[in-house]
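Appendix B, Record 12. Input sequence as logged:
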Amino acid sequence: MMAVTADGEFVTGDALLAVYATAFADAGDRVAAPVDTSLLVDDALADVGADLVHTRVGDVYVAERAVADDVTFGGEPSGAWIFPDDSLCPDGPLAAAKLVDLVANGPSLAGRLDAFPAYPIRRTSRDVPDKVAVMERVHDAVRDAYDDVDTLDGVRVDLGDAWFLLRPSGTEPIVRVTAEARDEARANDVFAAAQDLLDEAA
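Logged structural output:
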């Protein structure tokens, strides 16, 4: 389930995830979302005293993590929204009803979105004939160069003010490259560094 504002503006998956997350999480709670989720969600949750816990990409992995008592909501920017108190399956009509209830009894959707910053995120996919071997080399190179490395799903590097992810497709001979920061110049630099790593490993 995706959404538009009353003025017809399409809401990105990360922004909608932040709307749900901040509506259903309180201080001390956790929200489950995949490793390619925007910093926007981390920052929005920090404002309410909650945390984001990463999962592998795929709503089944979000649902598995949402079983934990401390997880009050789970979602994927692709439009899969999980409300553990109701169901562990993504449910579009339920998510739509929840959103209608939120905007009927509080700020409008556009008003909620206005509270969130917009962070530049970069994405591309690269053809890689032997993605397993390439990712092994990427893993080794990243471990040597960076301190905060997560290999839950691909290789994700947290730089504090930015992050990048190199993740092999599960169905195609490609590696997806994602990078995000809180400003344009930093996002471009991190995106270039991530692609350089892939080039060197290919």
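DSSP finds seven helices and nine strands in the chain.
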